[in-house]
Amino acid sequence: xxxxxxxxxxxxxxxxxxxxxxxxxxxxxxxxxxxxxxxxxxxxxxxxxxxxxxxxxxxxxxxxxxxxxxxxxxxxxxxxxxxxxxxxxxxxxxxxxxxxxxxxxxxxxxxxxxxxxxxxxxxxxxxxxxxxxxxxxxxxxxxxxxxxxxxxxxxxxxxxxxxxxxxxxxxxxxxxxxxxxxxxxxxxxxxxxxxxxxxxxxxxxxxxxxxxxxxxxxxxxxxxxxxxxxxxxxxxxxxxxxxxxxxxxxxxxxxxxxxxxxxxxxxxxxxxxxxxxxxxxxxxxxxxxxxxxx
Length: 294
Hints:
The structure is a single chain. By secondary structure, this protein is mainly alpha-helical. The chain folds into 2 domains: 1-79, Arc Repressor Mutant, subunit A, CATH 1.10.10.10; 81-231. The protein contains 7 helices and 6 strands, in the order H-H-E-H-H-E-E-H-E-E-H-E-H. The protein has helices at 2-14, 20-25, 33-40, 44-56, 81-108, 123-128, 145-293, and strands at residues 31-32, 60-66, 73-79, 111-113, 120-122, 141-142. The strands form 2 sheets. Strands 1-3-2 form a 3-stranded antiparallel sheet. The longest helix has 149 residues, at 145-293. The protein is rod-shaped, with a radius of gyration of 62 Å. The protein starts with a helix and ends with a helix.
């Protein structure tokens, strides 16, 4: 029944003999357009025109793939069952409203029929032409509304049943979709929880690693500081020892200089004494010489 109703809906939208496409696409996914054309015994362009009309209302969807051998794109089509049923639901609701309008008219108004032509008109039009047929001038006869009322009520009842069937199918599809989405959301939530747990573990591991690296660095820094301190102490010791050596050397050099200076002073004093003696001797000789001449 559902397929038959969808069949009729497609023919309403895309034209006569197009409903067969429902039989091919119903319950299937990504059907090759060339396969559809072959089964419908139509050209690929005719099939595409039908599918494009349905696609404009969102009743079908497609994906395209490039043929590796031929190099062109091939379209694969899928019937959007829920959207088709929603469209069909709207169509059936409009039909029921139309039938109810007809029923109300049949129950409240009178209609007249020409016995020759079979043309039926409302009371207003019959009155306008003097209750005679405008085609053959035959006198109108009052129509019995009972068969039309029964037929209209039957159509309303049948369409209502079809509507309830479609609405029930929509409820089922939506429940399935809701369950599917719930499963997906549950899976996503689980994956998100796992991701967060992994991130937590990773962050904890990273913090631990950083702490270990920091402790190691601090240990190395402390060792370097100790080494530097020891080296500085050693260098200071060497510097102090060198200072002592330098001081000792300077003292020794000063002692030598002092001795040299003292020795030189002594020599100078000795020389000065000799000079003085020579001067005295010369002076004595000079004196004697002068006195001798006198």
